[in-house]
Amino acid sequence: MTVLTVLLAGLVDRLRGEDGERGDVPGWVMITVMTAALVLAILVPFREAIVAAVQNALTSVTSGGG
Fold first, then answer.
1. Which of 1, 36, 42, 59 could join 5 via S-S bond, C-beta 3.0 to 4.6 A?
2. DSSP H helical segments within the chain, as ranges?
3. 63: Cβ contacts below 8 Å, ≥ 6 apart
4. Where are the domains of the chain?
5. To 5 degrees, how large is the angle CA 55–CA 62–CA 44?
6. How far apart (Å, rounded) are the C-alpha atoms in residues 40 and 24?
7. Full-prediction pTM beyond 0.85?
8. Which long-range contacts (CB under 8 A, 24 or more apart) does 33-36 make?
9. How far is CA 53 from CA 22, 44, 46, 63, 66, in A?
10. Is 1 helix (H, G, I), strand (E, B) or coil?
11. Model confidence over 5-51: pLDDT tens digits?
């Protein structure tokens, strides 16, 4: 088989949905939702500390570090 034939056969398999390596949509959805939940779980109790740390960092950068 030529390379072109192999590539076309792979493309046809993907279009038909017969590719076993297409991925798992519910898996990436679950990872996205869990990541958002972790961000919220960290952000909610530590919001004031995070805001203060970012403000201090920006102040030290804009004031020349002194």
1. 1
2. 3-16, 25-62
3. none
4. 24-66
5. 15
6. 25
7. no
8. none
9. 42, 15, 11, 15, 16
10. coil
11. 877 787 777 777 655 665 666 888 889 999 999 999 999 999 999 99
